[in-house]
Amino acid sequence: MWYEVHPTPVKGKDGKNLVYVRPQSGMKLTIKQLEEYGERMNYLRYGELSRAFDSFLHVAGRYLAEGYRIDTPIGSFAPRLSLARQVTDAEEVKDRDVRLDGVEYKPGKLWDREIKKWLDGFRRNHNPDTQAILADKESLEQVMRDCIQKNQGYITAGMFARASGLTLYSARKQLKEWTKGDCPKLMMTPRGKEHIYTEI
What we know:
Radius of gyration: 23 Å
Structural class: alpha+beta
Oligomer: single chain
Distance between the termini: 43 Å
Number of strands: 8
Shape: extended
Strand content: 25-35%
Number of helices: 7
Largest sheet: 3 strands, mixed
């Protein structure tokens, strides 16, 4: 498994940022690709996996809506609830205060066994040092301006991440920083599911 090392904001005993590891970015498959693999290697009919997911969502959705926890071979699913306002007295909680806050998923041990069956060690992908890139503000600004010139006067977080070597998260954070303050460098405009940034 290819992995990357990234810094966290938390300082270690030596005063430096602690690091964490994660699988290499960009490792992503669609359900269509899984379907094709299942068809080739597991003798599934094409679409069988999608139909199984659709059926599970339909059936499980009903029982989750009634408050059930659902245990499956791949883990358990349960509705996650929250309150719309802060309440300190339990007697004050009204039905209208309760909100569905998504579905909680706890993976089962079958995942560990299945993954370990295929796992053949770890290999490091030497990704750029995000902290070092973010520290060099002049170079970052130049990368941002070059990107804007190449892309008809605007930039997205994805474009900036690819050009600068930053993670998508760090690229978004840096672009937003440039939209703040008394003299912002960029203006952020929503476009579909993403934002575009243009120079002011």
